[in-house]
């Protein structure tokens, strides 16, 4: 029950959709399923894909609570590079299966080369 409350699976969000057919509860259910076995490492694939920004914020807030509050290690693949780096302790950019850049999330966000190549700036 505590895990259910932590990730927000309750009646107030049961049918929350973002207008493109993606259900917030569907994403939260994916996280809940992964937590059933109480893993130390949580593998998260594209948590923001297909969700509108307000739901993305909610999912990242929940992942942050798992990371900080429950001391879970999270290995994430995320195409929203800026959001992923804001969350990451360590970030890695891969190009054609090869590591192109790696470092702390903060350092990569501040690196102008990362901005130019991967963040559209």
Radius of gyration: 15 Å
Straight-line distance between termini: 44 Å
Backbone structural class:
alpha+beta
What fraction strand? 15-25%
How can the largest sheet be summarized? 2 strands, parallel
Strand order of the largest sheet: 1-2
Mean of the pLDDT scores?
Answer: 84
Shape: globular
Uncertain residue ranges: none
Number of helices: 6
Helicity level? 40-55%
Number of strands: 4
Q: What is the total domain count?
A: 2
Q: Could you give the order of the helices and strands?
A: HHEHEHEEHH
Structure report:
The protein is α+β, with helices and mostly antiparallel strands. The chain folds into two domains: 1-79, no CATH class; 81-121, no CATH class. The protein is 45% helix and 19% strand. The strands form two sheets. The protein has a two-stranded parallel ribbon. The radius of gyration is 15 Å and the shape is globular. The termini are far apart.
Quick overview:
By secondary structure, the protein is an alpha+beta fold. The chain is built from six helices and four strands; from the N terminus they run ααβαβαββαα. It has a two-stranded parallel sheet. A two-stranded antiparallel ribbon has the order 3-4.
């Amino acid at each position: 029950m505590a895990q259910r409350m932590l990730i927000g699976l309750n009646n107030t969000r049961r049918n929350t959709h973002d207008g493109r057919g993606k259900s917030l509860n569907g994403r939260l259910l994916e996280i809940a399923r992964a937590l059933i076995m109480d893993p130390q490492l949580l593998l998260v694939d594209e948590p923001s894909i297909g969700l509108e920004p307000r739901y993305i914020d909610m999912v990242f807030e929940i992942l942050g609570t798992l990371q900080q509050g429950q001391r879970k290690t999270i290995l994430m693949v995320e195409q929203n590079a800026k959001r992923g780096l804001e969350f990451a302790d360590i970030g890695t950019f891969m190009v054609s299966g090869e590591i192109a850049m790696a470092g702390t999330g903060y350092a990569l966000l501040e690196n102008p080369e990362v901005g130019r190549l991967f963040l559209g700036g």
